[in-house]
Amino acid sequence: MAELKGKTALITGASRGIGRAIALRLASDGANIAINYHSNSDAAKEVADQVRGMGVRASDIVGDIAQIGSIPSIFDAVESEFGGVDILVNNAGVMAMGPFESLDEGDFDKMFAITKGVYYMMREASRRLNDGGNIINLSTGLTRNWAPKAAGYAGSKAAIEQFTRSLSKEVGVRGIAVNAILPGVTETDMTSNFPEERKLAASAQTSFGRLGRPEDIADVVSLLVDRRARWITGQLIVANGGSTP
Fold first, then answer.
1. I need a surface site. Which of 41, 173, 236, 241 has the fewest CB within 10 A?
2. For residues 38 and 58, what is the distance between their CA atoms, to the nearest angstrom?
3. Strand duo 32-37 + 177-183: pairing
4. pLDDT value of residue 245
5. What pLDDT was estimated at residue 188?
6. 153 is catalytic
7. Which CATH number fits domain 8-237: 3.30.360.10, 3.40.109.10, 3.40.50.720, 3.40.50.1000?
8. How do strand 85-90 and strand 129-138 relate by DSSP bridges?
9. Which of 95, 102, 69 is nearest to 155 (CA)?
10. Is 136 helix (H, G, I), strand (E, B) or coil?
């Protein structure tokens, strides 16, 4: 278990799925949690209540990272509530699948608007994160294979992986570690509409014969923000249960 007492974690897209699991896991490690969300205020408030029930502080902060102008205000709100940010987890994401010939331009733009938002969240963090902090970006295991109908989504995440590597070189002098996690297929709202045969095939490709769970990814975040992982930075951590393409 990481020892995060007195630390503050800002997690984007934290009202559900992997983001929610990360919020609860880091709260169990002792961190205060800033729950960023875009539209589901009820779910965000529910997560905040759960976090407070674990004996740490929580705040739900609305803000769409795809709207670049809102990013400084997200950090302002966290600093006002907690005094600063020690951990940033860029979890918010949008998935749209489709072949090259028919991927909707609107869906493409939504995915890359999040990619742009992650860049500017990282830029803001590079200026405002406390020394010795951590930035964790969520990518996807789809950047490691050649899946059909996934070019747009995988491409939007591949850019984030390069942001991760570059920024690690720029903020390392301040003791800030920057890493990315590449989950395999994970049971979330985002994948709930996958055809059952696709889920079964994805499960069969893992060493454990099941899909990932949000808690599996949250535990990896907990490992990376632990002080004992301080020598790990600029890395792309594949967390897919041994899945093969």
1. 173
2. 17
3. unpaired
4. 66
5. 81
6. yes
7. 3.40.50.720
8. parallel
9. 95
10. strand
